[in-house]
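How a chain folds remains the central question behind the approach discussed here. No coordinates are needed to read the tokens, only the vocabulary itself. For completeness, the protein is quoted in full, as a sequence line and a line of structure tokens:
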Amino acid sequence: MCDRYSFKKVYIISSEICLLGNIVYLIAVSNPGKRGMTMLAISRFLVGFDAGNRSVCRANVAAMTTSAQRLKYINLHAAVVFVGYALTPGLGSLVAHVDANIFGIQLNKFTSSGLILVGFNLATIVAMLTVFDETVGKQDGPPETPRALLASDALDDPTTLPSRIVRLGAVVFIFLNFNARGILSVFETVNIPLYLGVTGRDPGSTEAVVAASNFQFYLGVLGLGSYVGAEYFRARISDITWLHIGFGTLLMGNFVLVLAPHTLSFTHLTMAELLSIPHIRLVGITTMEQVVLERECEYRVEVSAQAPVTVKLVSGSAELFGIELAIDNEYTLRDQKAAIFTWYGATLQVTGTPEVAYTSDETPMNSYVNIHAQLQKRRELAKLKGIAGPRVLIAGPVDSGKSTLTSILLNYALRLGEKPTHVDLDVGQSSLSVPGSVAATPLDMNCLSIEDGYVLTNPLAFFYGHTNMAENAEHFRSMLQQLARAVKRRLADDNEVNASGCVINTCGWVDGLGYDLLVESIQAFEVDVVLVIGQDRLFSRLQSSLAKLPGADRFSIVKLVRSGGVVPLNSKFRSTRRQSRIRDYFYGSHALTRPIPLLSPCINEYSLDEVEFYAIKDMRVSAGMLPVGQTASEMSRLAVTKLEKTMELLHSIAAVAHPKRHDSRDALTSTSSDLSWLLTASSAGFVFVKEIREADKKIVLLVPSPGPLPSKYLLVGSIKWIE
């Protein structure tokens, strides 16, 4: 075609073919099944056919000129094509949240970027029509004199080349072109999946696709700089030098590829790109060091979600939040802030690149182990007398280390064979269920896990629906009382569990209403040991308040210092952690950093009539609105409100309420009008509202397991999740 028609015509025709191929692709993804696969194959063929023609067109023009003589519009069009190939996947982050159906074409985070590519194809056609210089011809190529105009590689007489050399050159050209096309195909289509793979991100997560797209965009901009460099240096560097530079960097990239680890950080991936843009996509550097800990010291490490760190105990003894590490066993830390402590000294081998890592000899572990020893004495005494064991509540302001101390005390008890009950009242950062829940679960030694928190648990959860207790304090009180009654019934049914007691973690709101709810928690669970971390004011207030309660002599209030290793968390980190907790519920712990998630949730479609959504609201009214002689405390302030099934429910986390006993056989079809039982219903599980199609009267839910829902009653609050 290049010999028969002009370069301009061939290029425009190729762009039109590519435009058609991308339009077919958009249609293909909206037609699942055999038809869609056929259309997808046709789409890829058309795009590949176009790409091959463009490559030949550029090669023909490049063959006519050296770098020093290559006209500016060649680099201009190469840059336009590069934008289409390299930057388009990156621009997908702009449309990652798109989910629409236009004229039967489904536009989502995977297909919308193809629409951008259609736009770039149109831009290429317009550029060819407006910028192309019709006067360019063979006469603009290098003169056939050996050293004229820096063209040291020009031949005196091209016609003297033997046919064998010409055929050999053609074979080499075809071989290089096929390899180049293969490399470019990888660059175009595999970059984002590869980014997700090496960073351990969840391919189904919109945030992960946005991050991968942005990464591609940054690299595309960096690659675009190579064209700027070629334009700037085209009169200073010969063709052969450009070739040496290209193959040299490619060689370096492949060499480092051999040394690449399985997972890479964002920084390592970027460094790799500097060596091999746009050819190699998987290059990186990993680090390994030995950390020697003295007696009663700890190694504090902060690990990001994108760069897991592996820790191995080489010698000595050490523990992570009270769980003992085994010699020569590798433990992978993902997306956490941890402290590995040793009583007698230890040597650790740390592989990876943590965000922060240092050792410290100032730890509160001596006071923590003393607390554990006192609690263990109470447990042993409770077993002998057949009475309740210690009920411990941990209080303190935000970022004081309450969750860490909770884990340490529970893990120490579990290592001794006890079966303590873990209660979590922190609705903002729940460790037992999704955020917005209060939950409890009995533990045993089989629940211990260094990498995944507590495993094999079956918590009882009540869904509050908000991450702030002030959002609906009356509802939180109700959930608190329900959970306390359930925990006390469970302890009463099992002497061993009762003697082991419970450890209660609380939230960091300790002023005003938050303090009142803290005192109510102590009363509801009949707590006898209160541990206060890091605030003298709270310690003093609790001493005063608890002294006024009935049975005040049973309370033991202990003040503990805040660990220097506690890391203050900003609101953005807390929000990200909540999103991670929800993802972990559906896909298993650390789903973003694992090649294969531990759990496989289901996406189920229901008729809008099959489910009902409700919210628990505080119907508080002013004193002037009450009947004569009544007070607000005498009336039930909480009410169950039915919600309309509109797009406002999209992306909501909903709790599936356990049905009433007489409704359990007909949980999905019950039409009982009395819904007051929902005020005290526990959660059978949680679902995510993935899609609502009001026109079709359908709703799509992400559910943790297959099968029908336990009931049609779904409770929602203010918690949203963008998958």
User: Anything to note?
Assistant: The longest helix spans residues 34-64.
